[in-house]
Amino acid sequence: MARPVIGLSPQLEAQGAGVLLRHVYLESIEGAGGIPLIFPLVRDAEEAARLVSLCDGVIFTGGPDIAPEIYGEETLPECGMISPERDLTERRLFQAVLETEKPVLGICRGIQTMNVFMGGTLFQDVVTQHPSETVHSMEPPLDRSIHTVTVKHGTPLWNILGVETVGVNSCHHQAVKDVAPGLEVSAVSEDGLVEGVYLPGERFFCGVQWHPELMYRTDENSRKLFRALIDAAQPRE
């Protein structure tokens, strides 16, 4: 059986000097049976569609904040670094993923990408806009759980993990606020933040707010998530 190719949205070095990606993403895909492929920056919709066509599945990775203007809000002082080049690249790639119905996994910024480009909004800063006792921006080491999330029964995420409560790491200061039309919530944190979304009717369309790639070596639930993506991305004859 051929190993499916999984495309990954790129992260950018400071001042846009180059693209990069943490090796744990590549290791997680390879460990689950896939072949990782890092996308370049892309502006043109046709080029993005061509890149996505080369892959059997796609991951939208973690990274900096999404420009609030995309979801119709003024930028607050607490909003962090924004990368217009990455926003445009992921907009083009996401459009191509929707059109082709490729299996897709969104991680941290990735779940926010899914939500925003389908018409949802974000908390620009969780600490000031959704204060709670739950730690959402943890200190290293990052390969351990810092809080729990409740997985909704009967959702695709519940079918993948087979449990109702999952311990997760947490490295974010933004989060889903208004869920986009069409998306459904699959998991919530102890303080009510959206931690998982899915698109009903799709073969595999899953977004999570935590970082399973950082826990891949130590956590079976993280491995289950990547294996599920690889299984969904197996080339169809």
What can you tell me about this protein's structure?
It is built from 7 helices and 13 strands. With 237 residues, the chain is α/β, with parallel strands linked by helices. The protein has a single domain, classed as 3-Layer(aba) Sandwich (Rossmann fold). The strands form 3 sheets. It has a 9-stranded mixed β-sheet, with helices on both faces. It has a two-stranded antiparallel ribbon with strand order 2-3. Strands 7-10 form a two-stranded antiparallel sheet. A hairpin with a 4-residue loop joins strand 11 and strand 12. It is globular and about 45 Å long. The mean pLDDT is 95.
CATH fold-type name? Rossmann fold
Rounded to an integer in angstroms, the radius of gyration calculated over CA atoms is 16 Å
Percentage of residues in helical conformation: 25-40%
In N-to-C order, the SSE pattern is EEEHEHEHEHEHEHEEEEEH
Largest sheet properties: 9 strands, mixed
Span of the ends, CA to CA: 11 Å
What's the number of structural domains?
1
> Considering the protein shown, what is the CATH homologous superfamily?
Class I glutamine amidotransferase (GATase) domain
Nearest-integer average pLDDT: 95
Q: Structural class, from helix and strand content?
A: alpha/beta
Q: Could you tell me the number of beta strands? A: 13
What is the topology?
Elements: E1 5-8, E2 11-12, E3 19-20, H1 23-32, E4 35-38, H2 45-53, E5 57-60, H3 84-100, E6 104-107, H4 109-117, E7 122-123, H5 126-129, E8 147-151, H6 156-161, E9 165-168, E10 175-176, E11 184-189, E12 194-198, E13 205-208, H7 220-232
Parallel strand pairs: 1-4, 1-5, 5-6, 6-13
Antiparallel strand pairs: 2-3, 7-10, 8-9, 8-11, 11-12, 12-13
Helix pairs in contact: 1-7, 2-3
